[in-house]
Amino acid sequence: MTRKKADFLVFTPHPDDAEFGTSGTVAKLTREGKKVVYVVCSNGDKGTDDINVRQEDLVKIREKEQIEAAKILGVEEVIFLRHPDQALEDTPEFRKEIVKYIREYKPEIVITADPYRRYVWHRDHRIVGRVVLDAIFPYARDVWSYPDFMEMGILPHKVKEVWLWAPEDPDINFRSDITDTFEIKVQALSCHKSQIKEPFKSEMEKWLCKRAKDMAEGEAFKLAEGFHRIEIWF
Ligand SMILES: [Zn+2]
């Protein structure tokens, strides 16, 4: 039970969020030999403006898109929690579910959405970011947070760092060089065909490139993804 199953665990609210937020970095990590595992929290069944698409079909389409994107990025495993879209809540049950994956996969670093974007921010992103932070500390760390997990051999684990994607600009304290993996990010995002449609589709690469350039301003590299990084030393 003490064997690590992932170097990085990525908790994404919907299929496609991790591709927007961190896929250039994920591609770089896997190419360096790091084991990255995705946990997709919701099934994305509200993510369409097409009234002719049935929700159960949309879920299947989005899982397929997520798996294709993960394959391009070199992600080791994709876990689908399949909670309904727009219905994630900060509950003891959801927190415990997240703790279980952290304890089982024992990642050194967890990547997820920053919960503290102000004003307009998808509620699922806010909830996932917050619940994951709580799950890391103190619930995954402390022995008696879940006595039943102890009985089952699901032992405590200390995560060393958290990287939050899409923070507000003043909160960015870590810029990850994605110069060599930017094209892979574009390819991975292109898998999410149900989400990326015209007019955004033809503008996407230009838009991503501009954002990545802005993010790398003042750095020795050209393109970056920005994070709020938290080191947990206690
Ligand atoms: Zn989302």
Brief sketch in words of this structure:
41% of the residues lie in helices and 18% in strands. The chain is an alpha/beta fold.
Explain this structure.
By secondary structure, the protein is an alpha/beta fold. The protein has a single domain (8-231), classed as Rossmann fold (3-Layer(aba) Sandwich). Helices cover 41% and strands 18% of the residues. The chain has helices at 17-31, 55-73, 92-105, 123-139, 147-152, 182-190, 200-215, and strands spanning 8-12, 36-42, 77-83, 109-113, 161-165, 174-177, 224-231. The longest helix has 19 residues, at 55-73. The radius of gyration is 17 Å and the shape is globular. The two termini are 22 Å apart. It binds zinc ion (ZN).
Q: How many domains in all? A: 1
The CATH topology label is: Rossmann fold
The end-to-end distance, rounded to whole angstroms, is: 22 Å
Radius of gyration: 17 Å
> Which kinds of small molecule does this entry bind, naming each only once?
zinc ion
Count of individual helical segments: 7
What is the overall shape? globular
Name of the CATH architecture: 3-Layer(aba) Sandwich
Overall average pLDDT: 96
